[in-house]
Amino acid sequence: MIHSDAVVIGAGPVGLWTVFELGLLGISCHVVDTLSGPGGQCAALYADKPIYDIPGLPVVSGQGLTQALMRQIEPFQAQFHFGQQIEEVTQVDNVWHLRAKSLGNSAGCAFAARTVFIAGGVGAFVPKAPALDGLHALVGTDVWFEPPSLPVHTAPVRICVLGGEEDAVQYVLALIEGQQPVQVNLLHRRDVFKASPPALQKLESARAAGKVRVIAGQPLRLHTTGQSPQRLTGIDIDTPADDVIALETDMLVILQGLGPKLGPLSRWGLQMARKQLVVDPSTCATSVHGIFAVGDIVDYPGKKKLIVSGFHEATQAAFAAAAQLRPDEAGPLQYTTSSKLLQQRLGVQAPASDT
Amino acid sequence: MIHSDAVVIGAGPVGLWTVFELGLLGISCHVVDTLSGPGGQCAALYADKPIYDIPGLPVVSGQGLTQALMRQIEPFQAQFHFGQQIEEVTQVDNVWHLRAKSLGNSAGCAFAARTVFIAGGVGAFVPKAPALDGLHALVGTDVWFEPPSLPVHTAPVRICVLGGEEDAVQYVLALIEGQQPVQVNLLHRRDVFKASPPALQKLESARAAGKVRVIAGQPLRLHTTGQSPQRLTGIDIDTPADDVIALETDMLVILQGLGPKLGPLSRWGLQMARKQLVVDPSTCATSVHGIFAVGDIVDYPGKKKLIVSGFHEATQAAFAAAAQLRPDEAGPLQYTTSSKLLQQRLGVQAPASDT
Predict the structure, then answer these.
(1) pLDDT tens digits for range A257-298
(2) Residue B193: its chain A contacts at CB < 8 A?
(3) N or C: which end of chain B has fewer CB atoms below 10 A?
(4) Does A320 touch chain B (CB under 8 A)?
(5) Which residue among B24, B56, B315 sits closest to A57, beta carbon to beta carbon?
(6) Terminus-to-terminus CA distance in chain B, angstroms?
(7) pTM score
């Protein structure tokens, strides 16, 4: 169990700014995110695309903004826990206990903290999955959301790859070019793939050579052995012509990218409205004491889903949490330009002030 | 009379960000400031000092932030009116008429606008003046807040310079080293001056040579000719020893720097609390329809006087004003990363989006 004053859920720009404002106020924190690195939507959806409306940065990429914020929070040495999703939040003696599950192979973390900041953006970024009965029971054996290590077989493995973009195409090509005997089907809702020209060209050649079968359609249901442990045996596929194809397969690899999901926090008992967390804008406190929420996930009168507003919300939340955590230390607002204390926390030596 | 959708009062960072958000929403504006250039407090108080808490800018000077924001708002071609202070605001047929007075020699502007944004910071920056009866009637003839052009006299001009910092010391040295015959008194509340070492050294030499008399004390009252037009004849000075010195002088040059004054807007009938303008944080609307206020000058529950919050307030105000000015155009929030319309307004060509 990791004990901390604060846990920030979400390492997007607004989560990172929460770390900064907490740090200025002398509060250290742990940060948890489902993604494998910082940046949230900025990294997952528009890493290379320009953003024009961050004040003081006439143009910056999602990645550039993330890097700048990571540099800015460096002095506060927040600890990051990537590839983890907070599953459960329970209160024990005025302290919040958080249990995370790992989305990869590491162990899930557990935290105890008096304040929690949900900087959840549009939700946790998790792999997009088709709605198929029995799918999740097979994850990690015959269903994968990332390229699996292939079992060593003498007979060829029958693999169905679901996806229509670069990741899926590249994985299909890697399978064909690999040493393992495989029989590869590439399943996508239509026979149009969004990938780099060389990858598309190789895919065409592989199709012409009969090394991969492309199926346009949607997975409809899974077939399994019907015994425990369940094993995948096939997929029914709904094709545009309304025919259902029964595809025999040993393994389904789903590479449809990441999509945001509100996820478990919808069950934490926080007041919600239109799938947003309702907060008091003066503090960004949720309906539950000690849990704050900031950024795109919140709602209050006049709320705009803009990063510039998220930065302000993170600031409000940090001050409100500081008042809760250190009620005796409240004093006049200090400025990084003039405050020796803040400059010490930032690890900077400002030029001697002319008194 | 200049007609515009919007007038922004104050060209500090938050005023500049108001221009940006208005521009994104397709609203052009005029900007008025008492200072001679953009930046507000950032330029007047800490142009060269580092600021550490602007998100995405790990360290930036007041001047650097101002320059970045000026670059960022360039596409929107706001028109700036510097050295002007809005004196009067009156409403005529749902339009606000604003009358500015010039703090220099130019004519004051007049504006007609449906929306007004007060980004007044800690107040308008105006020269710090001693409280002396009859002072303002002499401004521009015998009392100056900037180094005046000296009249050509055969007899030496008797000048009293009021101030204790670099500006005042440098002006005294320039007078001594100039061609004009002058008799110079340097008046400051105590015999300690804050200036660069070379300037202080020159001042010492000048004192030793009898070229300047330094008087420690505070101006108490002015003596004038008593006829119209009034002319200055002398100043009574209260010295630390409680003696009053009567100093004969033809000219008083006040170089005590700039200080913020709430100024005329305290008479505009806007609801105030503790010298702040009360706003609805969801819109940053003041108590008067069409007048918005943002930044350090406003108050609402939880208000922190931080630039990061001012940026958010400017955004809220711009959206609320757009809803008032263009009620038919309200639509879903658009993003600079993806919206062709916003990119067109910004004058940028974003990379082709992969649909």
Answers:
(1) 877 777 777 778 889 888 889 999 999 999 999 999 999 999
(2) none
(3) C
(4) yes
(5) B56
(6) 48
(7) 0.76
